[in-house]
Amino acid sequence: MRLLRAVKDKTARHLMLGIAIFTILFLLVMGLSLFFKALPIMKEKNLWVLLTSAQWKPFKGDFGFLPFILSTFYVSLIAIIIALPFSILTSIYLNSYASKNVQRLFEPVVDLLSGIPPIIYGVWGTLTIVPLIANKIAPKFVEYSTGYTVLAGGVVLAVMIIPLLISIMVEVFRSIPKEMTDASLSMGATKWQTVKRVILRKSVSGIIAATVLALSRAFGETMAVLMVCGNITQIPHSVFDACYPLPALIANNYGEMLSMPSYESALMFSAFLLFIIVVLFNGLSRFALNQIERRYQF
Amino acid sequence: MKYLEEKIFKVIMICAAMIILSVLVYIIGTIFYRGLPALNLDMITKLPGGGFYLGKEGGVLNAIVGSLYIILGSLVISIAISVPLVLYINFYLPAKSVFASLIRFSLDILFGIPSIVYGAFGFALMVYLGIRASLIGGILTVAMLIMPIMMRSFDEITRLLSRDLPDALLSLGATKYEMVKVILRQLLPGLVTAILLAIGRGIGDAATVLFTAGYTDNIPAALNQPAATLPLSIFFQLGSPVEEVQNRAYASAIILTVIILILSFSARYFSSKFSKNKI
Questions:
Q1: What pLDDT is stored for residue A258 in this prediction?
Q2: Whether residue B136 is found in the same domain as residue B261
Q3: What are the residues whose beta carbons fall under 8 Å from the beta carbon of A234, sequence distance 6 or more?
Q4: How many CB pairs under 8 A join A and B?
């Protein structure tokens, strides 16, 4: 009986250790298999050419990723520019001003916003943002725009990353010791002065980390952006041009292109590119956030 | 002067919060406003009939059932892996273990990997294993996507558990394995929350199942048959030039949104229940 208990305990322990090792290795396996899938195209073409050429003619063997990389970058940049002020202001409000009831009201709001599937954001974007840009905003600046633009992608993406930004920033603000803000308030500073001179200054690194994390989320977002950004292979020259981000490229073409090995490898290259960027960005910001969390723990 | 600044910024902050709140209402409102006219019982009880994508009769039962199959299958896999892992890093490894923080760190990174990359990786894996786009392919890929979500939220809740219970159990002579069995019962509401969150993410994601699960108008009868999913069904109907079909895409979007709303609120309910039990 005693032996049986010991054996059970041992078996469970080893099994769990196995699972734990598997989890860590999984990331590595994923990166390596994407890398090896992308290797043929990297051998065939110079890496620099792949990244900086704007020539995308898969059937002639030209694979220049620049339009896709720039599209991804522009859309994410617009999203961050829109989302950041809203998120910072709202998180400050929730952290330092709002009553318990308002805070309680906002928890499900943030939860729901982050829970709504990308496809629903996409549907919403095509129904509201795209026509708004095509009919109201774009005519003021350019002659004609379909509405399926960099800007539409950026706006939809901004709404999608706001919950992530808010939930992290609230954590960051909360990690600031109450003694610090109390000291500032007792010296006669107003709440806003305290926010400006103590809270914001203390959480600069946290805000940067949250931004990087949100950026990496934005880089990888697929369906919602795909539905509103036009998907035309070109380098967008204004926010009213259509664009074609990397994830959309994979989603639209992968699965059908197995007959062309170099095309498949090129698409895998873009998946690998996304993987590397996201892992890098994520790793850095998570590391920074963990440090921040630890700094004020007593 | 400083009081004026205070007032101005307070107003700006409240505006920002209000805008975020109203965007949420606007999104849900838009979906319901456009989808409700096309929503009827046929949508959720019938398979797509002949000419469904030209505006004829039918519903999206294939997609609803397909999504359910995929999410249930991937839940089985991910629970089987997540629960032991979380218990291991919390109760088997020492409190300040480097190994545990390494696992948590890689979970954080896995959590951030975009679903399209999981989709591409899953598809590459399936090609390697010789599986075609099918229910099992979708299940495996969605399992990869939701596993880090489930692990992270379950881990977060598990960390809140007071250390008294495990200590008491161990001092009564229980083996660690017997100890975690008891603790698991205590953690059940937390696990339910984690599962609901994972379902919410998994059921709404289109990019993972795009290449791996395929699409069909029928309900899959075996693991190696393709399966339709709700998000893809919305996507394909939306791509149709026929207005009736587009309206049905909005109706399907309502179905998906309602599922997500229910999941989100029940997750909230269970997690509040959990914090009540906590001392």
A1: 62
A2: yes
A3: A67, A241, A242, A243, A244
A4: 254
**Nearest beta carbon to residue A251 from set B16, B88, B210:** B210
B56 and B30, same structural domain?
no
Domain ranges of chain A: 49-295
Q: Which of residues 168-227 of B touch A (CB under 8 A)?
A: 175-178, 180, 197, 200-201, 203-207, 210-211
ipTM: 0.89
Which residue of A lies nearest to B114 if distances are taken between CA atoms? Answer: A220
Same domain, B190 and B268: yes
pLDDT at B170: 85
- Do B179 and B213 belong together in one domain? yes
Looking at per-residue pLDDT, the higher value among B2 and A117 belongs to: A117
Which residue from A104, A46, A149, A112 is spatially nearest to B272, judged by alpha carbons?
A104
| The one-letter amino acid at A213 | L
Select the more confidently predicted residue: A35 or B5.
A35
Residues in chain B: 279
Exposure b/e, B117-137, CB count within 10 A at least 16 = b: bbbbbbbbbbeeeebebbbbb
Residue-range definition of the domain harbouring residue B179: 45-277
Same domain, yes or no: B234 and B104: yes
All residues of chain A having their beta carbon less than 8 Å from the beta carbon of residue B30 are: 124, 127-128
Residue B276 has pLDDT above 60, yes or no: no
A128 in B contact zone (CB under 8 Å): yes
Q: Which residues contact A201 (CB under 8 A, 6 or more apart)?
A: none
Global pTM reads 0.90
Asked if the Cβ–Cβ distance from A222 to B207 is below 8 Å, we say yes
Contact A162 B20 (CB under 8 A): yes
What average pLDDT does range A4-28 have in this prediction? 89
| Judgement on whether residues B17 and B49 belong to the same structural domain of the protein | no
Higher pLDDT, A160 or A253: A160
| CA A73 centroid distance within chain | 11
Q: B103 with B29, same domain?
A: no
Structure tokens that stand for A91 in this block: 């998180």
Residues B170 and B257 reside in one and the same domain: yes
Number of domains in chain B: 2
Rg over CA atoms, chain A: 23
User: Is B105 in CB contact (< 8 Å) with chain A?
Assistant: yes
pLDDT higher than threshold 90 for residue A253: no
* Predicted local distance difference test score (pLDDT) of residue A297: 55
The tokens 């949508």 sit on which residue? B43
- Distance between B51 CA and the closest CA of chain A, angstroms: 23
A12 touches chain B (CB under 8 A): yes
pLDDT in the model for residue B17:
92
Domain A49-295 -> CATH class: mainly alpha
pLDDT digits (tens, 9 = 90+) for A115-164: 899 999 999 999 999 999 988 888 888 878 888 999 999 999 999 999 99
Q: Which CATH number covers residue B82?
A: 1.10.3720.10
